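Think of the structure tokens as a kind of shorthand, similar to the way a musician reads notation: each symbol stands for something richer, in this case the local conformation of the backbone. In the example below we present two proteins back to back. Begin with the first one, reading the sequence and then the tokens, and try to describe in your own words what changes along the chain.
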Amino acid sequence: MTRKRRCAALAVTTALLGTGVALTAPPTIAAPVSSAEAAAPVARTVAKAAATPTVVGERWLDARTVDLTIASPAVGASLPVRVVLPTGYAAQPDRTWPVLHLLQGAHDDYTSWTRETDVVDFLAGQDVLTVMPSSGPTGIPTDWWNYGSADAPDYETFQVDELMGVLQQRFRAGTKRAVAGVSTGGYGALAFAARHPGTFGAAASYSGILDTTALGMPTVLNAIVARELLLPLSLWGSYLLNRDNWNRHNPYALARALKGTGLYLSQGSGLPGGDFGNLEGALLEGTLWAQAHRFTAQLDALGIPAQVHFYSGGAHAWPNWRQEFKASWPTLAKGLGLS
């Protein structure tokens, strides 16, 4: 874990433990939404969708890996994206390819997957187009509320819709997709699948926040936002006053929409039995343990199957996530139509 991520983990863990609460909140069900409240984010999305994302930069790192810079109307900024081509791409110019989205964690960037794992080599023999988009400094890939501003950044639309258009135009992306992510990217993977039913054949979360309204989780999310010197309420508003908006972005509250999606979920218990060489990461992993169990219990109650790996110890860090990605590959491959 880098120094920046260690500091972030410590800040989040300290903020959570400072609440003096355990993660044992009762399940949360999405509250009814007024027509005006529901229409506001939709109107912003429709307005931004009228504009077209543009590739403004392209840099090839090797024969299979290219970094793009995409001007995103949804986010209102130019964002980096790493794309890794399948080995057979050039030899099959008429073929389309399924797309695997790999999402970064908090306080990291779009290079994390290739920096921390052997994903390029691991996927070399798989017929899949792999894309690693930026989720911004917090690593939370969502449509930010930002006090109802029409200019609020919408990383969800960028990653789910805008980016796909670029991939189809430039790299012959097909229609089958899967998504996986670590930490806040794990949240994004399940949120994307639930908020866009049928779009992703599979979704995998490694140590993700899967119940955003569980007791203590708003504190964790607010700490992540504040760590980047942003106002915590800019994410989805006040947890109390804008509870409906929080629920609209909560995988737990939207779990019913995951029916038919291949799911892989992993979570460590952190301490005790954690990585004492990474105490902050072990503590942070432990704070997510109860909400992950609650999420899987919700899936069970709804009759939605998932491959789940709860393991003792572990830290909120890449050594565990590398293993979990490979363990989840059969689920992802099936969702991509590769098995």
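Once you have a description of the first chain, move to the second and do the same.
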Amino acid sequence: MKHLYSPQPVETISLEVEWSPVWEVILGIAGYTYRQIRHTFDLDDKWKSHEDSMSASLVKHLKVIEETNFWYGLIMLQNKLSASSIQDFSNCLSELSMDCFYDTLLPYKDRDTEPIRKATAHLHEQGELLKYAACFESHEYLGGYVRAVSHYSHHDICDLFIRTLNEWYEWINQREEWEKWTQALAFEQKQYSLLNVKNPMEEIERITGGVKYLPEPSVWNVKLIPHVSYRPWILEKRTPDTKIFFYPLKEEYLIEPGIPSTELIRGHKVLGDELRLKLLYQLVKGPLSLQEMSGQFHISKSTLHHQLSLLRAAKFIRVDKGIYSANLTRVNAFSEKLTQYLGADI
């Protein structure tokens, strides 16, 4: 059988590194209101030490964000608007049509439910929103998030978002580190202004420090957002046509010579606990589920989850579909980081 081949241009994904102060403000709000794992964030101690300087209004608004998971909506809107400042965000938000507003807020699930999502965004009625929320009943927070969207008016959501962004910015901008962060993040974006679009998967892994992205149907755009406020975590989100990876800025941009990195400090703190060392020991021997470890160590799942989250934050372990395993590459490389910090001649 003969094959008639007529060459056509090969399409690939669009890849860009994007940053603005708005992203850093939103990720700070997202991290601060993520109570379950906030203790693993690099900035948690700083947030705690400066909480007393928060205005009563900001505390109130952050509580609402925490209860509703509206940080997700902030991320989706900034992805849509790519605002360069909070004022720009506010201006662009006021110009969005109601259909576009709800189309942006409502999370994408899959191709089968996409027509339902589109129709719900168009109607944006409470009953329809509650029906769409049922599509996410098994999700950790998206079902509750969509239900919360149904209970708030368009005006109230926009007002909450703008007030929270402005008040968080006013609060965090008082920290002496803010200017250093913004300069480092702007530099990160600038150095990746020209990317190798012929090998986008390799570029994603190189820039993010290890994210292995597999192409997905309908995703034509990938955004890489560097951050400080959500360190040490990589946050992953998607829209119908865009994948977004929020990756931690390299710590070398943030510390002075002779100052130990947060990564080094966190790693030694994590390994300085008997239970966590025992957990890591067992996971080096082989993958285990939370149920298996709970039975093996005779401790509650909630206690285990807390200890495992610390090991995950230090990148000593991974979890995939509820199964935990040791990150042997990270374990083996950790001692080298101590040697590098102390000096090559020791």
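Compare your description with these statements about the second chain. The beta strands are 14-17, 221-227, 235-238, 242-248, 288-289, 317-320, 323-326.
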